[in-house]
Every structure is written in structure tokens, then in C-alpha cells.
Design a protein that fits this description.
The protein is α/β, with parallel strands linked by helices and about 140 residues long. The chain has 3 helices and 7 strands, in the order βββαββααββ. The strands form 2 sheets. Strands 4, 5, 6 and 7 form a 4-stranded mixed beta sheet that branches. It has a 3-stranded antiparallel beta sheet with strand order 1-2-3, with no helix packed on it. Helix 1 packs across helix 2 and helix 1 crosses helix 3. The protein is elongated and about 55 Å long. It starts with 5 loop residues before the first strand and ends with a strand.
């Protein structure tokens, strides 16, 4: 798989750039805390968004292949850099229809675990020493 993108930067460290790919068009910038303008997403946000997008896409595929009665599924993710390294925590939530069986609920929970194991971006980051945790929940609606 090959990915191509282009970034055009304007204005030095306090400026910003425009990142474009086939389906992506966004501003990028150096964070204010590092002396930049903060007028755009920063590299850490892009990295975490890649991990989160990969996770939810993998989860979506798994849920669909299991034919579960999914009403909605979402993910919130957060990242922290410390002396211990770079850590990402995903908080996926799956909402199943109110008539979902216990077996379907357990299958959805296993899909969360499976998405963590199968996400290619997450696996690349783990090989690079990033810690990724998943704290998922399944609800009925």
C-alpha cells in the first residue's frame, strides 16, 4: 500500500502549512507551546488521529463481519508524552440495539480486543515503542 501527500508551508515557525492527500485537506502548524502559531493540527494530533482512524475502521469491519445489530460506534482517543514514552489510549464505545443478545454483546467486546490486535497503524506504533491501551464499552439502546 502506498500513500502520497503534499505539504506546502508558509511563514516560518509561526506560520502554517496545508497538508493535502486524496481525501485530506487540512492546516498544519507548530503548537504554540513550542513557539509556533498553533494555527493548524500538529504532528502528534495527526499521529493519534491515524491510530484512532485505523482502530475504528478495523473495528467497523469486524462488527460488520459479525453481523451485529450496531446502532452506532464511536472512539475518543488521547495521547500523553512523558519520561516513560508515548502513550495512546483509545476509548471506543459500541451501541447495540436494545434486543441484542448476551452472545452479541460478548462478540462486540471481543471485536474491540480484535481491532486492537489487527490495526496496522497501531501495530507499527507498538513496534516503535508506543504504548496503546484500549478501554472499550458496549451499551444497549
Amino acid at each position: 500500500m502506498k500513500t502520497n501527500l503534499n505539504i506546502v508551508w508558509h511563514g516560518g515557525a509561526t506560520g502554517n502549512g496545508t497538508l493535502k492527500a486524496d481525501y485530506l485537506d487540512t492546516k498544519v502548524a507548530i503548537p504554540i507551546s513550542l513557539g509556533g502559531s498553533g494555527n493548524g493540527t500538529d504532528p502528534k494530533e495527526l499521529l493519534v488521529s491515524s491510530a484512532a482512524t485505523c482502530f475504528i475502521a478495523t473495528l467497523t469491519y469486524m462488527l460488520e463481519s459479525r453481523k451485529l445489530p450496531v446502532v452506532e460506534h464511536t472512539i475518543n482517543s488521547e495521547a500523553a508524552i512523558s519520561d516513560n514514552g508515548f502513550n495512546i489510549t483509545h476509548y471506543p464505545q459500541i451501541i447495540l440495539s436494545a434486543d441484542a443478545t448476551e452472545i452479541q454483546i460478548q462478540s462486540a467486546q471481543r471485536a474491540i480486543e480484535g481491532a486492537d490486535k489487527e490495526c496496522e497503524v497501531g501495530n507499527l506504533l507498538k513496534k516503535a515503542g508506543v504504548t496503546i491501551e484500549v478501554q472499550g464499552k458496549v451499551f444497549l439502546k
